[in-house]
Specification:
Layout (H helix, E strand, L loop, with lengths): L7 H12 L5 H20 L10 H15 L3 H20 L29 H14 L4 H10 L5 H6 L5 E2 L4 E4 L17 E4 L2 H14 L14 E2 L2 E2 L2 H11 L2 H4 L13 H4 L13 H14 L4 H8 L3 H8 L4 H9 L6
Antiparallel strand pairs: 1-2, 2-3, 4-5
Helix pairs in contact: 1-2, 2-4, 5-6, 6-8, 6-9, 12-13
Length: about 325
């Protein structure tokens, strides 16, 4: 089949439209961001037609992206893997030669590079909760941190929670996939479930709803569980809450980086908390929670169900126990063999 001319930006736009129903919203945004770098490179190279792409040009993009973004190996792999998917899709609409995707070179990762070890330690998490309990009881940051550490919720799941999905008498919350009203779940319908809550989490939630929660509805007439004065809390807002409470200067009142707290921008401005080298993301808190549950000898199936992930993903990307720790936990079952 002869190739049909199409510009890089038009092709990316068509690709994103095609993937809209297939990818979660956060994944779609990630693809859009990564392919935005490809469009920028095409503009620099004056490539106005995808038909012109060759394996050599794609390799030049890889070198340009590595230099332009100062990428770690894992980030480079993510970038090139997304490009390969896009090039394969482009071949399906006769925009590039068939099998061109096979010429997209992506680095291989070692087992250590393929997993991320950044997480919040249980001792630190409990100290953060203790500080929030004492000084910010039932605040938005207290609620969000507890829902991640105690319930293992993803950032996007917290955004999607509604008042009607919280059942205080049953001590549970319900997660629902609603892409039509801008609150999709990462696992879509597979992310829908009821999740039990412990007494203290419900106490904090109840106090939040009675005393602290801004009375807001979203653009679709729904009542979000976690709100700001502008409406439903957004993913970036949840992210900023977690970055801000995981700074050591917040809950320990000391800086491990020898900075003067009063003069440190990351300490004095909550919106810049992520600049602190010791601050942690919601994902790091969730990873720490999952590892802690496993270390407490909770069954793997319970942990994977509660965290809404497959046992394979759990073992590969979240279980940070050392081989010796796993051996010692198995020791308790030896008498039954």
């Amino acid at each position: 089949m002869p190739l049909e001319p199409i510009s890089p930006d038009d092709a990316v736009e068509l690709y994103l439209e095609d993937k809209d129903n297939e990818l979660a919203q956060a994944s779609l945004y990630a693809h859009q961001s990564r392919l935005g770098h490809f469009i920028r490179w095409c503009e620099n190279e004056e490539i106005t037609n995808l038909n012109e792409l060759t394996g050599r040009k794609l390799h030049r993009f890889r070198l340009w992206r590595r230099e332009d973004g100062d990428l770690a190996t894992a980030s480079e792999k993510t970038q090139m893997d997304t490009l390969r998917v896009f090039i394969r899709w482009s071949a399906s609409i006769d925009a590039v030669p068939q099998n061109l995707s096979e010429k997209v070179i992506s680095p291989s990762l070692s087992e250590e590079e393929n997993t991320r070890d950044v997480m919040v330690d249980p001792e630190n998490a409990e100290e953060i909760l203790g500080y929030l309990r004492k000084y910010e009881y039932a605040s938005e940051r207290h609620v969000v941190f507890r829902l991640i550490w105690r319930a293992g919720l993803r950032r996007g799941t917290i955004v999607a929670l509604d008042l009607e999905g919280y059942y205080p008498d049953e001590q549970s919350i319900e997660t629902v996939h609603r892409p039509e009203s801008e609150t999709p779940l990462k696992k879509k319908q597979r992310g829908e479930r009821f999740l039990g809550l412990v007494d203290e989490t419900c106490d904090v939630m109840d106090a939040w709803l009675v005393d602290r929660r801004p009375d807001q509805t979203d653009d679709y007439g729904r009542e979000p569980l976690v709100t700001t004065t502008q409406g439903r809390a957004q993913p970036g807002t949840i992210q900023s809450y977690v970055y801000s409470v995981t700074r050591p200067c917040f809950w320990k009142r000391e800086c491990p980086h020898d900075e003067e707290i009063q003069e440190c921008e990351a300490a004095s401005d909550r919106t810049k908390a992520s600049q602190c080298p010791s601050s942690k993301s919601p994902h790091a808190v969730r990873r720490g929670a999952v590892t802690h549950w496993l270390s407490e000898d909770l069954p793997e199936r319970f942990v994977s169900d509660r965290a809404n992930m497959s046992p394979e993903i759990l073992r590969a990307h979240y279980d940070r126990r050392s081989p010796r720790d796993r051996m010692e936990q198995r020791r308790g079952y030896l008498d039954n063999i």
